[in-house]
Write a structure and sequence with these properties.
The complex is a heterodimer of chains A (about 150) and B (about 130). With about 150 residues, chain A is α+β, with helices and mostly antiparallel strands. Helix content of chain A is about 15%, strand content about 35%. Chain B has a single domain, classed as Immunoglobulin-like, CATH 2.60.40.790. In chain B, strands 1-2-8-6-5 form a five-stranded mixed beta sheet, with no helix packed on it. A four-stranded antiparallel beta sheet of chain B has the order 3-4-10-9, with no helix packed on it. The radius of gyration of chain B is 20 Å and the shape is elongated. The relative contact order of chain B is 0.25. The chains are: A alpha+beta (about 150), B mainly beta (about 130). At the A-B interface, β1 and β5 of A face β3, β4 and β7 of B.
Chain lengths: ~150, ~130
């Protein structure tokens, strides 16, 4: 038997082509769709970070009056509530494009560590809310002194 | 605390093949509204975390290019344990027509929202035509 000419339209090749198409389809079906808005998560999305002294919770909340924001700490639960108010008179303007959302929101989260609720502070700068929660004394790192016997 | 693996959602990332971006860090498309009044067009862009000093607006031919740079300095001493949104610079551009008076473009930044006010050129502003009685 001599050499068989490689034929792109051969049966085996067709099969591998179908296999490839199928695996691409499964990849497509199993991949999570990329969200383009905040619709799939709770609003506002947050970032929680810590250092030795504090826990920080940050949220991007552009265009909200500080008086329309309500930040509360009860035990180890932080609640951020607020409203992004729509201030334009829609009778006077014509919208050509609308991507930004307005409305009320509320979100609670369990804090990763015990905090001193009395000393919690919050600041709002350039549309970013930062809540600074000082850690309670019992959750701060303590150095253990080793006694030499 | 155990680190939770949740998909980071929200902003639409700009890939480098779609436009030329320079500088460190990721770039994102900010959300924007455009509305029209009898005298002008206003573009509102959400750019949380960007100060007015870090915004750069350029007009090149008929493209209005908006760049907002963000600082992540606040996070340098912190350990992020839970993350739901991406932080990055913002870029967006708009094509503007002859209906805009290019000498009268204003921009204001407040609480993370950039407002660009584009005045309409005189020839497109609504005019009332007087009807003469004979």
């Amino acid at each position: 038997m001599g050499l068989i000419k490689w034929d792109k339209t051969g049966h085996l090749d067709n099969l591998s082509h179908i296999q490839r198409e199928m695996s691409e389809l499964f990849d497509f079906l199993s991949s999570t769709p990329q969200a383009e808005g905040y619709t799939n998560v709770e609003y506002p999305p947050i970032i929680v970070s810590t250092n030795e002294e504090n826990v920080f919770v940050r949220a991007e909340l552009p265009g909200i009056k500080v008086s329309d924001l309500d930040v509360r700490v009860v035990n180890d639960i932080l609640t951020i509530k607020g409203e992004r108010k729509f201030t334009l008179d829609t009778a006077k303007v014509t919208y050509l494009r609308r991507e930004r959302d307005y409305g009320t929101f509320a979100r609670s989260l369990v804090l990763p560590e015990k905090v001193d609720a009395e000393k919690v502070t919050a600041s709002y700068k350039n549309g970013v809310l930062t809540v600074r929660l000082p850690k309670a004394p019992e959750s701060k790192p303590k150095q253990v002194i080793i006694k030499k016997s | 605390m155990e680190k939770k693996e949740l998909p980071v959602v929200g902003k639409k990332k700009i890939s480098s093949d779609r436009c030329v971006v320079t500088g460190k860090g990721n770039w994102y498309f900010p959300l924007s509204d455009i509305y029209e009044t009898p005298d002008n067009f206003t573009i509102l862009i959400d750019m949380p975390g960007v100060g007015s000093e870090n915004i750069n607006i350029e007009l090149q031919d008929n493209e209005l290019i908006v760049n907002g740079e963000i600082s992540q300095e606040a996070y340098t001493d912190e350990k992020v344990i839970y993350n739901e949104y991406n932080i990055g610079h913002y870029h967006r551009h708009f094509v503007i027509s002859d209906a805009i008076n290019r000498d009268k473009i204003e921009a204001k930044m407040s609480d993370g929202i950039l407002a660009i006010i584009l005045s309409k050129a005189e020839h497109v502003k609504p005019r009332k035509i007087e009807v003469k009685a004979e």
